């Protein structure tokens, strides 16, 4: 699933993908990425699948959170993500007009 891709001299960007598949670690419309500076974990928000997935820095799937809906802890077209030093993930939920604050610990260990 993890394929390194060289974009320039001295620059390596890891590219994770499996198109049009809805399983764990796969994306339909990945919109935004955040990296936790403490753990190195990578969080990816997928607008079409209405979820956040977390990966190790090597691209190994850890866990996912969210599904489509208006209720608490559900998303409708999430489109942005960032983390802070307190172990929180902020997800902008476009169609629900709100920001979710999640604890990185809900995704399990990133190690």
Report the span from N to C terminus: 18 Å
- The percentage of residues in β strands lies in over 45%
Q: By helix and strand content, what is the structural category?
A: mainly beta
Radius of gyration, in Å, reads 14 Å
Order of helices and strands: EEEEEEEEE
List low-confidence stretches. 1-13
Largest sheet: 4 strands, antiparallel
| Anisotropy-based shape | globular
Strand line-up across the major sheet: 3-4-5-6
Number of helices: 0
Instruction: Estimate the mean pLDDT confidence.
Output: 80
What does this structure look like?
The protein is mainly beta and 111 residues long. It is 0% helix and 47% strand. The strands form three sheets. The protein has a four-stranded antiparallel β-sheet with strand order 3-4-5-6, with no helix packed on it. Strands 7-8-9 form a three-stranded antiparallel β-sheet, with no helix packed on it. The radius of gyration is 14 Å and the shape is globular.
Give the tags.
111 residues, mainly beta, 4-stranded antiparallel β-sheet, 0% helix, globular, disordered N terminus
Chain-wise SSE layout:
Blueprint: E1 2-8, E2 11-16, E3 30-35, E4 42-46, E5 51-55, E6 61-65, E7 78-83, E8 88-93, E9 98-103
Antiparallel strand pairs: 1-2, 3-4, 4-5, 5-6, 7-8, 8-9
In short:
The protein is built from no helices and nine strands.
